[in-house]
Structure formats: C-alpha cells, structure tokens
Amino acid sequence: NIDAWWPFVEQGIEAIISTASGCGVMLKEYAQLLENDTDYAHKAQRITELVKDISEVLNQQTSLPVKSPGNTKVSFHSPCTLQHGLQLNGIVEGLLIQCGYQLTQVNDAHLCCGSAGTYSILQPKLSAQLLNNKLEALEAQQPDIIATANIGCQMHLDTKSTTPVMHWIELVERSFEPEKLS
After folding, report:
1. Is Isomerase set as a keyword in this record (predicted)?
2. How far apart are CA 146 and CA 157, in angstroms?
3. Distance set, CA 10 to CA 1, 5, 19, 127 (Å)
4. Residue range 100-146, pLDDT digits in tens
5. What Å distances lie between residue 174 and 7, 28, 138, CA to CA?
6. Can you give the pTM of this predicted structure?
7. Which of 15, 62, 85, 163 has CB 3.0 to 4.6 Å from 81, enough for a Cys bridge?
8. How confident is the model at residue 179 (pLDDT cuts 50, 70, 90)?
9. How far is 98 from 168, CA to CA, in rounded Å?
C-alpha cells in the first residue's frame, strides 16, 4: 500500500480515506508497525497522518446536500474498531440523523457483534452468542435497516439478521440530492 500511495503523497494528496473502520485502524498503525524499518518508517508515519475515516471527512462539511429518506428507521452498530480503535464515537450517528434517518436506541451498543477479524473463526461459539445478543439489541425496535461501518461486521450481522444490513455510507448516498452534488 505504501508504495502504491507514495506517488500521490508526493503530489500532495490531502487524505487517504478509509470506508471500513477495521482497515482504517490498521492503516493508522503503519507508523508504529514500521517504526524500525529504515526504508519505510518515515513513509509509514506520513501515511498514518493522512489516513481518515470517511465519517471524519463528511463530519467536516457544514451541511450535506440531502433529501429526506422519509421515516426510515435505522439501528446502527458501531464496530469495535470505530469506537475503540479510531475513537470516533457518535459521528456516524450524527451524520445519519443529519441525513434524515430515525436512529433507534440500541441497548449495549458498545458491545462487539462477534466478528472481530478471525475471532469468529477461532471462537465460533462465543462469536455466535455475541452475534445473537447484538442482533437481538439491533432488531428490538424493528428498524427498516441495520447499518454499520465495517465490512466484517456487516457480513457477520448479515448471516443471521432478518433485517437488511448495509454500510452506513450507502444510506448517506441514498439521501443525497443529485442536483446539489455538482
């Protein structure tokens, strides 16, 4: 990744935007992981400085060009990587509200869905219990959609959810007014 991005860094890009919180956390750790690598330490540090989650970028906008999505109820699952790794609590929820979605109250919102990278493979029983608990909390208020910020969580939740599961940025995109985007 560093070699692929480096020409753009040298040209002065403003940011490297991640749409998956798990990937964003990993990219933010490049500097630490490569701090002793004489060839890559300075490049990794610069990459780490440039990485932003897409929620950070959108949150800097004064307003988003949105149309009302109606009365669409959304339960948001904040991935562990978004909450704890990137420490971006409440930003996605605020953006979804700004886009006109009705967010449900989710009990134990801070708890893991059970995906956690290889966790669902190495600890399948515990992962399944966490998934069941999370889905019970997410579906308690009968949302139209469950949204999340990490592809691993999205796929894991979708394995047993009776409610459609999607990435939150898809909901933001659905709420944009095309004529105001140019």
Report:
1. no
2. 9
3. 14, 9, 23, 43
4. 999 999 999 999 999 977 778 898 999 999 999 999 999 999 999 99
5. 33, 29, 21
6. 0.90
7. 85
8. low
9. 13
Mention every residue, 6+ apart, whose C-beta is less than 8 A from residue 131. Answer: 113, 114, 115, 120, 156, 157, 159, 160
Nearest to 152 by CA among 120, 107, 180, 124: 120
Identify the residue whose tokens are 């929820």. 93
Structure token digits, residue 51: 């990485």
145 secondary structure, DSSP code = E
The amino acid at 10: E
Domains contained in the chain, CATH given: 2-59 (no CATH), 73-175 (3.40.50)
Q: Which helix (H) or strand (E) holds 103?
A: strand 102-103
What is the per-residue burial (b if ≥16 Cβ within 10 Å, else e) of 64-93? bebeebeebebbbbbbbbbbebbebeebbb
